[in-house]
Amino acid sequence: MTQSKNEKTGLEQAGETLFNFAVNREDIKLFIENLADETKCKAATVEYELQLLKIISTGWSLSFFLENDSQRDQLAEIFWKLVHDFSESLSATTGLMTGHDINYFQVLKSRLDEYVDVLTDQPEATEPAAVIGPAFARFCGDADDVYTIMTGSKMFIITVARVKEYLESIPFA
User: Fold this and answer.
1) pLDDT digits 0-9 by tens, 119-159
2) Other CB atoms closer than 10 Å to residue 164's CB: what's the count?
């Protein structure tokens, strides 16, 4: 029996599920609702950076948890292609609304590079979230804001844990 054009492979379904998780904003809304009043960072900036961090953490988790899996590259390619397509659409819409050209995918790529650099610069850190949180707070405007540090750390920890749980539930992982 041959697969029809509209049927998705298991990898395509997994990539789509991971993409949908990465761009889902429900948990981000909860983080913003629970952001301490004492934070010095603007809620809009924290919300924007949380979305970037969630997408980046999802993609990073694929590489990390599937390090020795033969299908890692293919799944990562599917995921990042969906992110790229989403980014192009978002960039076009934002450009029309604001009159400014914005390349959301380039923003994601740059932020990913910055997080990787921070992790690389602190190899002695035993927990990546301990490095990600302060970097997140810096991107939000105040590297010393403990509330924002904790928010970024929690988003990273929760995202990575949920991706790991999902990957462990699918047959190929």
Assistant:
1) 999 989 999 999 999 999 999 999 999 999 999 999 999 99
2) 14
Element (DSSP H or E) covering residue 70: none
Q: What sections of 99-145 are H helices per DSSP?
A: 104-121, 128-140
This model's pTM is above 0.70: yes
**Listed residue (137, 129, 118, 130) closest to 36, CA to CA:** 137
**Would you say 79 and 59 are in contact if contact means Cβ atoms under 8 Å apart?**
yes
Cα–Cα distance measured from residue 165 to residue 42, given in angstroms and rounded to the nearest whole number: 32
Distances from the Cα of 34 to the Cαs of 42, 95, 129, 144, in angstroms? 13, 31, 19, 19
Contact 105, 87 (CB under 8 A): yes
Q: What is the pLDDT of residues 78-128, one digit of tens each?
A: 999 999 999 998 887 776 676 777 888 999 999 999 999 999 999 899 999
Q: Domain locations in the chain? A: 10-35+43-169
Q: Are 61 and 164 in contact (CB under 8 A)?
A: yes
d(CA 26, CA 148): 18
